[in-house]
Design brief:
alpha/beta, 237 residues, Rossmann fold, two-stranded parallel ribbon, 17% strand, seven-stranded parallel beta sheet
């Protein structure tokens, strides 16, 4: 029987690449994003790989979204083996331009949604023979960048609860991983920063390869966190 995975932010960038990679490995997918048309298009493509797909068009800003995602996925697939919290909302501006509304929106998507998705998924992950949670963080969760104070705050929150969660579910044999990449070239990044050289940036396929390894690896060693930098950035900076 195929393993079952939930991927948020599945229709674009890193999420889409992760979905394609896991589908190729025979993992059934619950695909989560806001755009229903994009979801249906992606599900159609991935179904050709011989897996089951299920789509959930929902806004992670909604407080009820995490519970609804878990409920619908379990109803469709009967369980959960893998949760990939990939969806995120970027923002680049000085702290003077932030406001409470934007703060609440970004924390809702980048921190609150993955937190409660983990909480709601745990009872089902405990029943899995190979349960895995992967949270996609960012270089800003451990380094400071000018004009990214709000985005950094949300990713620090994600990283912080990930580290605690890993300890809380260790006895349940649920492996929890944090992936913190530097600049990854995505469609959104290309639109925001057309000046960036795509060839110098981390590719979405590289992140998908790492996710693939983490969900399949079950050795005696455990990788808690992976930090990834661009090849031309300073090592161990």
């Amino acid at each position: 029987m195929n393993r079952k995975a939930i991927i948020t932010g599945a229709t674009r960038g890193i999420g889409r690449e992760i979905a394609a990679k896991l589908a190729g490995e025979g993992i059934d997918l619950s695909l989560v994003a806001r755009n229903k048309d994009r979801l249906q298009e992606l599900a159609g493509e991935l179904s050709q790989k011989g897996i089951r797909t299920f789509t959930i068009a929902i806004d992670l800003e909604d407080e009820e979204a995490p519970g609804e995602i878990i409920r619908q996925t379990v109803s469709e697939f009967g369980g959960i083996d893998i949760l990939v919290n990939n969806a995120g909302m970027p923002h680049k501006a000085p702290i003077s331009e932030a406001d409470p509304g934007l703060w609440n929106k970004m924390f809702a998507v980048n921190a609150r949604a993955p937190y409660f998705l983990c909480q709601q998924a745990i009872p089902y992950l405990k029943k899995s023979n190979n349960p895995v949670i992967i949270n996609i963080g960012s270089v800003v969760d451990h380094k400071g960048y000018i004009n990214q104070s709000l985005y950094s705050a949300t990713k620090h929150a994600l990283a912080g609860f990930t580290r605690v969660l890993a300890k809380e579910v260790q006895e349940d044999h649920i492996r929890v991983h944090l992936i913190s990449p530097g600049g990854v070239y995505t469609e959104l990044v290309g639109e925001m920063r057309p000046d960036l050289n795509q060839e110098e940036m981390i590719q979405t396929t590289e992140i998908a390869d790492i996710v693939s390894f983490l969900v399949s690896y079950r050795g005696r060693g455990v990788i808690d966190e992976i930090r990834i930098r661009r090849f031309n950035s300073t090592p161990f900076d």
